[in-house]
Every structure is written in C-alpha cells, then in structure tokens.
Amino acid sequence: MSELSKLFYKMQKLSNEISDNKHRFDELIEEKYGYHYSDKDLDEIIDCVDYGHGRMTFQEFSRIMRENKDD
C-alpha cells in the first residue's frame, strides 16, 4: 500500500471520527446552554472548534457560552 493510499484511509477515518464527535458535542452544548454557538455567531468559538484556529480552554469556552446565553 502506498503512502498516499495509507494517508487517504487515515484521513477518511479521522474525518468520520470528527463528524461523530462534532455531532455529539453539538447535542451536549445545546442541552447544557440551550443554544449553539453558531446561532449567535460567536467567532472566537467557531474559529477554535470548527476550524482549529487559535487556542481556547474549556473554561474560556464555557464562560463565553454562559455570557451569551439568553436569560
């Protein structure tokens, strides 16, 4: 098996894992906060979670989500 085909299958597997994890993550944040961060266009979270840009701790994520929750 060539290096290219190995990477193809690895990427395919990782993409499926990411998709499964993203779906579950979205369910859990909707349960906990009552909304999804993309509904409020929270760019800092979108950049980090959806696109892997920047660094954010879970505490920062949670603070931003709490601050933007409708009362």
Produce the secondary structure layout.
Blueprint: H1 3-33, H2 43-50, H3 58-67
Model description:
There is one protein chain. The chain has 71 residues and is mostly helical. Helix content is 69%, strand content 0%. The longest helix is centred in the first third of the chain and has 31 residues, at 3-33. The relative contact order is 0.11. The model has no long low-confidence stretch (mean pLDDT 95).
Structural class: mainly alpha
Q: Helix share of residues? A: 55-70%
H-E string: HHH
Q: If helices are DSSP runs of H or I spanning 4 or more residues, what is the number of helices?
A: 3
Brief synopsis:
The chain has 71 residues and is mainly α. It is built from 3 helices and no strands. 3% of the residues are buried.
Output the keywords.
71 residues, mainly alpha, 3 helices, single chain
